[in-house]
Amino acid sequence: xxxxxxxxxxxxxxxxxxxxxxxxxxxxxxxxxxxxxxxxxxxxxxxxxxxxxxxxxxxxxxxxxxxxxxxxxxxxxxxxxxxxxxxxxxxxxxxxxxxxxxxxxxxxxxxxxxxxxxxxxxxxxxxxxxxxxxxxxxxxxxxxxxxxxxxxxxxxxxxxxxxxxxxxxxxxxxxxxxxxxxxxxxxxxxxxxxxxxxxxxxxxxxxxxxxxxxxxxxxxxxxxxxxxxxxxxxxxxxxxxxxxxxxxxxxxxxxxxxxxxxxxxxxxxxxxxxxxxxxxxxxxxxxxxxxxxxxxxxxxxxxxxxxxxxxxxxxxxxxxxxxxxxxxxxxxxxxxxxxxxxxxxxxxxxxxxxxxxxxxxxxxxxxxxxxxxxxxxxxxxxxxxxxxxxxxxxxxxxxx
Length: 400
What we know:
Elements: E1 2-9, H1 19-34, E2 42-46, E3 50-55, H2 62-69, E4 75-84, H3 89-100, E5 108-115, H4 124-138, E6 143-144, E7 151-157, E8 161-169, E9 180-185, H5 191-201, E10 204-212, H6 219-236, E11 241-245, H7 247-256, H8 262-281, E12 285-287, H9 300-307, E13 314-315, H10 323-332, H11 336-339, H12 346-349, H13 361-385, E14 388-390, H14 394-399
Parallel strand pairs: 5-6, 5-7, 9-10, 9-12, 10-11, 12-13
Antiparallel strand pairs: 1-3, 1-4, 2-3, 4-8, 7-8, 11-14
């Protein structure tokens, strides 16, 4: 009998022909994250719809392993379990009592058994009933409640037998990077980090891009955006931040575009640059923090007016969310407190007081064509070719 970590995965199990690919992605992610903890003594393997992590030398140090892997995408639960090779019913009864007796929370309990190995002669319900009866005989203060138990005791019979009580809930989704790569337009606000998190949860690897406009914004904003990326590290790992020099483009557009249309042209310029970055990075899409109707530049008319600036699909994971829903996610992934630091980014400083909320896409494209002839094209090319890069702050990942 030894202590192990049992990892469950969700929709990956439904992928049929692609299931092995997704399973390998998750296992590789687990192995990469726990590699600093050991020198080959921790084993990660799959057994009948579960991943198992064990120390070949004895009990697994779950307190060291779990914080490093609990936020990987694709896993839905992590179970602190014991593993035994004894598969006869009498042995299971004794092991169940030994393991469960100190884990009752409250008074009532339920035993739930999953018998993946059908060679065991007893049905799942029969095993659950036998264990429940055995526990009641030795725990007279307890009672069985099949509907709303205080504690749920779980037994899984696979190649071995596993016993566990509580599960740490995972992130779910698809393994990070399994769906391809996308350029994330990352600002210092609340929305874009949440959009990045949600896209990553669907398997999109992130290439974060930040548009910087010194001296009109403080260098503290760069620190803020870097910290946002560090907060995402438990989910996506350590990735560099690409910084776009954007001052010249903003000043040019501010001088040559009506104030009410400025936001639209700024966003189109960002999409042009992000698209070129995506081409260089072999990315498949762009990702923005737009939410329909949240501000004037996010009406359907305004979104339509910027779409043609990008030849790639634009993912907008927040489209149908309200601000409360977005903030709830931001708090959970620990980006909210960073986002509300009082340092404004370029989008905030250059926004018009009364932006146009129903721009005509054809008019916008004709105006931009003239601006390109006036030098905007060269500015976009220069900005795209002169990206700066800041490394991700590793401390946040290590604390994860």
